[in-house]
Amino acid sequence: MIEKRTSQRHRVFKGGKITFENSGIPCTVRNMSAGGAAIDLDTPVMLPQSVTLSIACDDFVRHCRTVWRNDKRVGLAFVL
Q1: Is residue 16 in a domain?
Q2: 4 lies in some domain
Q3: How far is CA 42 from CA 1, 7, 26, in A?
Q4: Number of structural domains the chain divides into
Q5: pLDDT(11) > 60
Q6: How far apart are CA 64 and CA 74, in angstroms?
């Protein structure tokens, strides 16, 4: 597999929340880099192209776009 990330990713295991269209679902953040994150969802859910990722314990909020999906894992790119 060819690595396409421009910045190094770091493994994490943090509870987060994805919000979109006045709803929110819990997620687990599995890895992060300066440009994005990979999250796990409890169940496969159709997400819109644009979402917000929040990690309360880190006071972290980023607007994101979905870039890939594999069953319950979703790749997000942070939107600047």
Answers
A1: yes
A2: no
A3: 26, 27, 8
A4: 1
A5: yes
A6: 11
